[in-house]
Write a structure and sequence with these properties.
Largest sheet of chain A: none
Distance between the termini of chain B: 84 Å
Order of helices and strands of chain A: HHHHHHHH
CATH class of the largest domain in chain A: Mainly Alpha
Number of strands of chain B: 0
CATH topology of the largest domain in chain A: Rna Polymerase Sigma Factor, Chain: A
Number of helices of chain A: 8
Largest sheet of chain B: none
Order of helices and strands of chain B: HHHHHHHHH
Number of domains of chain B: 2
Shape of chain B: rod-shaped
Oligomer: heterodimer
Largest interface: A-B, 56 and 53 residues
CATH architecture of the largest domain in chain A: Orthogonal Bundle
Structural class of chain A: mainly alpha
Helix content of chain B: 40-55%
Number of domains of chain A: 2
Structural class of chain B: mainly alpha
Radius of gyration of chain A: 24 Å
Helix content of chain A: over 70%
CATH superfamily of the largest domain in chain A: RNA polymerase sigma factor, region 2, helix turn helix motif
Chain lengths: 199, 252
Amino acid sequence: MPVDFETSANEWAALGELSRVGAAIQLTEVRERAEALYREHFAFVWRNARRLGCSEEWVDDAVHEVFLVATRRLAEFEARSSARTWLFAITFRVVGRMRRDRGRRTARVERYLAEQPALVADAARETEAAQYLRQLLLKLNEAQRVVLILAELEGFTSSEIAHTLSVPAGTVDSRLRAARKQLARVLERDRAKHERWRR
Amino acid sequence: MNNEEELKSLFQAERAVRPPPQAVEHGLRRLSLDLAGQVAPPPIGMGPLKLGVSAIPKWLASGFVLGLLGASAALPPFAPSSPAGPHAPPAQPSAAPPAPQPAPVSPQTEPEVAQVLPKRDAPSGALPTLGAPAASSAPSASFDAELKLISFAKSELDARRPARAHAWLSEHAQRFPHGVFAVEREALFALSACQQLPPNVALAERFAQQHPNSPLSARLEHSCALNMDTKRLNGTAAPGERMIEPNAGEKR
């Protein structure tokens, strides 16, 4: 039986057109979803990247990298968790990797800055207070820092944090208590240093 | 102010921090630029292959096509017994329209890779077209386009659609008459002829004569020899007959 070439060619052309249109639609959807995600969660990623240790000079790069990763994985994200917990997990990994990748000299400078007693003349001055808090956060260990950020600053519940970090809720609570105690100790120490400096 | 109160005020201060207002638009522009380069739609049926096209050298791609040919060929012992002779005229697939004569297209006018797309509004009965050729002096673009056409044809042969394969090969012949995959194209033409109904091995014979030392010849002849041997095993072939059982050539 001879092959009906005309029909075959037309079918093929139609299939090709469908594939091309499908790819274009898919690309458009990806871009639209990526832009929506960016607009909705940029501030969330930006502030938590800073809290996780990004300095001003590279926080933009970190945020950019986070959303690049998120865009590539949009198809994998099936809304089993909230977008915020998903993005926080990406931010945590990206910032951690970027911090490791930064040179030793930069790390020394940041450590030095983190160890200096904050010169908070007036706690009512919002930006300085916020800067001071971010310095305090860097004095916590990583596990405590993440829990404190999510609980105190982002308002996540213990179960949400537990889901994000894949740890039991009890572990979250104990890390949170330890983080608060640690912060209180550091505050006490800084206050004492500050008092000595004022005299 | 005790520690707890101070911590609360610090938390409050940090919660009030907002990114600069222009940061979102700036970052979004940057992201869009990167996405434009990273999330480009794959050409039809070529997503995985496209990833490697720019990285693989020509010899490796040639080997890839060679491997594709070999993969589609069943491999019984080669039995060269061609009464058609070395100068037999090339046989066109009986069900397909005659292949267009290769037009003298210079490499400088070969199409961009992105134009390797069939047109929906092609005339009825026309071959799948690549769209209007655009001027491009990039050798890699023409190389990619060639490789795509050859791969399209191979995919059709794998799916036992020789007429469609013939169409892609004819397109390649028209656009890249002297392209880097010209030899592979001829081999695939011969293979598609072997898959036609009724099958015809004259092209395979001619290819073997013209490229006696080519590994493509050996593999192609293996594939078409399977048909001939099967015919002889069935005892239905007349002496010198080149026609074979319709379905015999579809064995892998």
